[in-house]
Backbone:
């Protein structure tokens, strides 16, 4: 027997067949731990590769709302995931700023016009959001595709952006980097230029996420993929402060009055969790180096009575994506270990500490698709068992 | 006026003109904060490149004790550094195991016979240390070169090894890696094989460091460069436990009864500092993501009266090497920030929290050599000022 959970009349949840992800984001109890996977629509799926081949290129895929809708839904057809995430790329934003994005085979993204000096910074501005219309059209198209015959959605749709700092890394380096030498040279030599870029990026990211919310995104996530390469004190000044600026400008509600949860994920940011607790967001994403029990004690908050509210973040993460290369039996063991590290699920009628299962980083293109099925099944079944009473649990294990 | 420091009759210090590094390792007060730089003998120095050109290749340099001595001393000729570190490479160890090391231009190290399956593991064993004789000969040669006319050394010589886990990364991946997919697949699929490799590596590393101590190394350092790629709980089982096994087998004293401090550096390991506090070592190295003041509070220990001893680690680190790309004025500011983040220097006659200044990772080959001079000067002069009374400090800044 599971604890009975009554759907709140909250418009955030009532329009969905499966609101578990949004419930957990807002620290409400759920009958099991919801999960989705970073980069769940991706190259490990043969059907994704087929669509990408039709589209001709990565940007051909990302800029066509029909294709973007098709690939966003593919993982949901295979696995009972609890959220969809917009298929796109964080580099659409600097591309709209005119930096000239291209993807070269095997070398990753490149910008034709990277930002390297004061004249380059002088040319930067918040881009016209019409240049990113294809993204908002994709959001609207995916929302339509997720809507069932009764008018309710299957699962919520997450919109996203890179963080101001992470976008700046690509803009200054001109692509990926091993050592972040160019951007850190600018950061330490000309902090004034660095701050000018980050201010423009923050205002751009806020406008971009607000337009995704207007188009129908039901939660938004800021990927601070490279926050963890910064030194202590530089992280606070050059990443965290600008993520906070984005959050301060975000719309809190969708068109029907539903709350739009905001998620912040800083890869390699575990040491700064106490400072991230002060961010005005609902969920913190964690990579696999963080112990979920320790994170819960630091930032997970406490229980509040129904209708009351107080500080505390839902936690999202954090299994090592490389676990998916092991046989299914070991995947099950490791998934259980991650769930157990978070500890006892919150099961009452107010708000309390909650967990959204995810990987600690994007899924690898080499992942066997049937291993993902084993992970999803293990998370759902073990997290349901965790909600049984200890006595019942002993009898079912 | 600086506080007066009397040299202890301790044989660990009395054989050196400049024992500040060893004093700080053992949590004794020093008149300033000693510093050395990871990879201080390296490609950023034109004289290093000249010697390497003579040697013909990287391994030609590392396997020739005369060349190794020459390049080890080069940075000491330029800068008043407080320690020398053996010029070598962590991959000498798996090479001695028969894996076939080569360095290809621009692609980094490769092993001809990586360890990928059970048959490969069956063939692994602790290698005969005679195969690494060139390393021990280099240690002895460098010690001779550091000895002054009065028989005392200029500065102490640090020996080193990769950690069991970090060596295993190269042995299984066959070279560097972006995602550690092969070794993590083994770790999660066949933990038994992983543990067999790590056991052999631990016993090898202990024998290797003990032979360096016998040859004259005055401190030893374990580089766990890739510990930080592991998930929480995997780090403890597959990296930390084997570093502890190494430490348990190390000689504590050199030929003249001098204490041999042991340093452990886990890049990306800041989250596990509380667990690393239990390691039987003297110093913990930290990368730039860690706040030194927070680390000091966690693991730096407290003051003990002369002759007494108790738990607590000296801390080594942790400026971002990319700071060295900024102009000297900013380098000075950032160096002071790192020194100040550690807080008030320990200045009494027992033992207490101490700091050894270093980079948070190896110096970049693109570093301008005169910027290193600015860093060294800033660390020495600011850390001397920190030891003045607050009143005097106010008048000199």
Residues:
């Amino acid at each position: 027997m599971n604890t009975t959970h009554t759907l709140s009349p909250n418009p955030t949840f009532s329009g969905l067949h499966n609101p578990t992800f949004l419930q957990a984001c807002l620290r409400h109890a759920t009958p099991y731990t919801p999960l989705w996977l970073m980069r769940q629509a991706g190259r490990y799926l043969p059907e994704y590769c087929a669509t990408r081949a039709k589209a001709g290129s990565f940007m051909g895929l990302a800029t066509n709302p029909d294709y973007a809708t098709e690939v966003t839904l593919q993982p949901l057809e295979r696995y009972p995931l609890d959220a969809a995430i917009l298929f796109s790329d964080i580099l659409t934003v600097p591309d709209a700023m005119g930096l000239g994005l291209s993807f070269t085979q095997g070398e990753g993204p490149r910008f034709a016009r990277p930002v390297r000096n004061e004249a380059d910074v002088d040319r930067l501005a918040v881009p016209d959001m019409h240049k990113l219309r294809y993204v908002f059209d994709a959001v609207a198209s995916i929302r339509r595709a997720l809507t069932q015959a009764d008018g309710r959605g299957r699962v919520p749709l997450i919109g996203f952006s890179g963080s101001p700092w992470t976008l700046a890394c690509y803009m200054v380096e001109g692509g990926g980097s091993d050592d972040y030498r160019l951007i850190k040279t600018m950061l330490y030599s000309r902090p004034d230029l660095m701050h000018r870029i980050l201010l423009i990026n923050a205002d751009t990211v806020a406008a971009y996420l607000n337009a995704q919310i207007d188009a129908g995104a039901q939660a938004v996530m800021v990927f601070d993929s490279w926050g963890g390469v910064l030194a202590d004190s530089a992280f606070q000044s050059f990443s965290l402060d600008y993520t906070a600026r984005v959050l301060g400008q975000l719309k809190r509600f969708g068109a029907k009055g539903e709350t739009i949860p905001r998620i912040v994920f800083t890869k390699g940011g575990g040491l700064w969790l106490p400072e991230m607790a002060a961010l005005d967001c609902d969920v913190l994403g964690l990579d696999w180096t963080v112990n979920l029990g320790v994170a819960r004690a630091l930032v997970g908050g406490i229980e509040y009575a129904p209708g009351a509210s107080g500080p505390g973040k839902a936690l999202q993460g954090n299994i090592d994506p490389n676990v998916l290369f092991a046989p299914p039996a070991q995947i099950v063991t490791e998934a259980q270990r991650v769930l157990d590290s978070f500890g006892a699920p919150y099961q009452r009628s107010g708000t309390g500490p909650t967990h959204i299962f995810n990987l600690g980083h994007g899924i690898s293109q080499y992942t066997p698709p049937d291993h993902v099925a084993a992970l999803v099944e293990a998370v759902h079944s073990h997290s349901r068992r965790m909600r049984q009473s200890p006595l019942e649990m002993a009898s079912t294990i």
Summary: Residues 11-396 of chain A form a domain with the TIM Barrel fold (CATH 3.20.20.210). Chain A touches chain B through 37 residues (CB under 8 Å).
